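User: Hi! I have a protein structure encoded as tokens and I'd like to know what sequence might fold into it. I'm fairly new to this, so please keep things simple.
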């Protein structure tokens, strides 16, 4: 979230603030939310409470445990803003991203009316199996797990994607 800089910081901040997200239309009518493209196929949503533009915008980061995730996003935002190399998003590993993609593909197939076996044939690139082979197949259980986890993600579990795993 961006907000107006407090007066105590006034002299130390440059008035040459680079705020390209303000050139785009807000996401909603009367909103202060903007989408800022990082240039690497990713984007950040910015809540700009300093929209009036009278003062320089500064980032407000809550001090809870999620603050670490927000600082990382802020670092990526600043890198894009100033034309530097954008660090990778580390919230999901390559394997996790692959699994998420498979989950959504499996759920799309399920919603389109495909059987679990048909979904498995497409996702795992396997040949059609007879009934007995399908019943004993480990791919059958993989598809069931993908569909179960996809339902959980769609029911609100997607919010976990936005957070890093924490070790307490």
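Assistant: Happy to help. Inverse folding works backwards from shape to sequence: for each of the 168 positions I chose a residue that suits the local structure. Here it is:
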């Amino acid at each position: 979230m961006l907000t107006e800089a407090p007066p105590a910081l006034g002299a130390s901040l440059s008035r040459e603030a680079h705020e390209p997200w303000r050139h785009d239309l807000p996401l909603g009518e009367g909103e202060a939310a903007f989408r800022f493209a990082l240039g690497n196929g990713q984007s950040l949503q910015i809540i700009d409470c300093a929209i009036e533009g009278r003062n320089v915008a500064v980032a407000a980061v809550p001090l809870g445990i999620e603050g670490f995730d927000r600082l990382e996003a802020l670092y990526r935002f600043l890198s894009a803003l100033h034309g530097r190399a954008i660090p990778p998003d580390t919230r999901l590993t390559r394997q996790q991203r692959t699994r998420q993609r498979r989950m959504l593909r499996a759920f799309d197939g399920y919603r389109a009316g495909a059987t679990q076996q048909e979904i498995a044939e497409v996702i795992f690139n396997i040949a059609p199996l007879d009934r007995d082979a399908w019943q004993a197949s480990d791919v059958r259980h993989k598809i069931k797990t993908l569909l179960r986890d996809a339902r959980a993600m769609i029911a609100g579990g997607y919010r976990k994607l936005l957070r890093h795993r924490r070790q307490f």
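A useful reference point when you look it over: The helical segments are 67-81, 94-111, 116-123, 131-136, 138-154. Feel free to ask if any position seems puzzling.
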